[in-house]
Amino acid sequence: MSEHAINLDSVTVRKTRTVLLESASLHVTRGELVGVIGPNGAGKTTLLNVIAGFEKFEGVLSIFGRPETHRRSRESRLRVGYVPQSFPVDPTFPILAVEAVMTGAIGRTGLFRSPGRRQREEAMALMETMRLAHLAARPLGQLSGGERQKVSLARAIIQRPDILLMDEPTANLDIAVQKEVLDLIDEIHRKDGLTALFVTHDFTMLPTAMRRAVLLDRGSVLFDGDIETALSGETLTRLFRYPLETFRRNGRRFISYD
Question: Which of 186, 181, 189, 117 is nearest to 152 (CA)?
Fold first, then answer.
């Protein structure tokens, strides 16, 4: 029987009088790449924050069989990598792309120890593997949004996590750059066998390795199953409360509506 990397049972998140996540249950097997899809405000980021240890919650969460709360040990936090929706940076801040990647290793090296030559070599090797080496010596603030997002992904990977959480990593990127980022995610998943959650509200471009999707609506799980059923017109109509149909052309999924 496959080991569950992530188990959530009846997890609820409340902020004052607002319920952000309500009795959500999710079970993710080691090595699975699962999509978390839903409209804005559905609770997608809140779900990731619970798993990452950034959010207080009611209910039960376990990571690789170990019960967790929002208070985590250093060892537990290192097992979960996080790629935010954007990687904002002051254009004048003096940090190179390779140095930004190296900051992902701080959890392993220690907060008060400066990364050394070994960490730089590791970062360069990773950037080479991810076809980012040409960006290494460029100031982070001078990179495009897509380039910064790739650096953000490398920064999470160098942490050597067992679980990778990605919060809309292709949002606000051009279609060609979205494809490049998705190809990188597929390659990393295939090579490292990471357990991964990929959050998005745009279901027209998804990692090809994604075989399962969880649909969230107003903080609750509306659907959990295979990707084709999840993105059928019938299921999406229930999610968005509007008649929708989907079709494919040249390998890409499109949506139609009246």
Answer: 181
Indicate if the pLDDT at residue 248 is higher than 50.
yes
Angle between the N-to-C axes of helices 117-129 and 145-157, in degrees from 0 to 180, rounded to the nearest 10? 120
Mind listing the pLDDT tens digit for each residue in 154-210? 999 999 999 999 999 988 888 888 889 999 999 999 988 899 999 998 888 899 999
Hunting for tokens 């809140």 — which residue is that? 46
CATH 3.40.50.300 describes domain 4-79+161-257: yes
- Specify the 3-state DSSP secondary structure of 246: strand
**213-230, pLDDT tens digit by residue?**
999 999 999 999 999 999
Domain boundaries, the chain: 4-79+161-257, 90-160
Burial of 166 (0-12, 13-18, 19+ CB in 10 A): buried
Q: What is the largest CA-CA distance in the chain?
A: 58
**CA angle, corner 228, sides to 222 and 232, nearest 5?**
65
- pLDDT at position 250 is 76
Say how far apart CA 185 and CA 76 lie, in whole Å. 23
**The two structure tokens encoding residue 204:** 């027209």
Phi, psi torsion values for 149, nearest 5 degrees:
-70, -35
Residue type for 157, please?
I
CA torsion angle 52 56 58 60 (round to 10): 30
Its pTM stands at: 0.91
